[in-house]
Structure formats: structure tokens, C-alpha cells
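Notebook entry, structure prediction.
Reason for the run: the old model in the group folder had no record of what sequence produced it. Starting over properly, with the input documented here first.
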Amino acid sequence: MMDTEYERSERCVECNSDDICGTIGGEPYCGKCWKKKQAEKKARQARREARQPKTTLPERCPDLDSCPELERLIPPYLLAGLRRYAQEHIPVGGFLQALLENDLCAAVCCAHEDSLAAIVPLVKYVHNALPSACHGSKEAVRAWLDKCEHGVMTGDWCEACNAEYKRAAKEAEDAA
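New structure, fully documented this time:
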């Protein structure tokens, strides 16, 4: 954008012309040099965009295992942590927890380089593939972690968890 506030006594910083038509970043430019600067800016932007990987990410994933476009962009250990969290209500590390709690600042501050590089696919994966009840706020994450994998609040009676516990105890007893 071209500013129109300038003093007539100034000269163009590029060609030293006294035919100033505006300023860019406080520096006076003539019309010809101003157009040249804008063209350079567009060329830099085009080079920057050319370096960005072109990936099309899905709008919605029906379940945790049907987002291959996203999964290949996410480090496997982060993907495994998200799956355990979503399926078994197992807590995740600080970066993923901040991401799930919708706390971008905390997520970026505690992210490793590979986690930070995958932040866009991670956000899309969380939004598209994980159950909506398990992310979005600290309260949602806390409530999700307080439930067993069958959706029953921890401490309450869950027949499936009780049966699994009894089976594991019997197997341990038989092995001993």
C-alpha cells in the first residue's frame, strides 16, 4: 500500500528522482520505483508459496483410521498418542494436551520441531477424526480423561471394565 504523506524536498531512495509519489515503510519512492518494489514483493511471495508443500487435506474423516492424507503428515508417535487418548482415555503429553485443550500458545511453546512442523495436520486430525467430546477445552479434556474406555465415569460401576479386571486377575492367578 502506498502512503501519500511525504515532503516534496525528499528524493526517491532508489533512483534519487525528485518526483515522489508516495512512501513505502516511511521511505520516499517515485511511481516507477514504487511499482518495481511491488513487483519484487509479489515475486518473493510467489517463491515462498512455491516452497510450501501442496497437500489437500480432507474436510471430514469418518473415524480414526480413515485419514491417510493427514496420518502421513503426522509423526507416528503423536498419532499413536492421540489414538490411545481417543480410544482408551489415556493421557497425552504436554504438547498434545495443549492442542486438545485448544491452547495454541501453550502448544507452540512446548512443541518439538517435528511436532511444530505437523501442527496444521494435527489440528485438522483432532477436529476431523477425534470424537468432539474429547477436545476443545480444558474441561472437555478433563471430562474425557475421567471416563473409562466404555464411557462410564471413573469410580462408577462399569460391567465391561469389571469383567475385564476379573478376567485379567484370573489369568494372573492361573499363571502363578
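Summary: The chain has a mean pLDDT of 80.
The old model has been moved to the deprecated folder.
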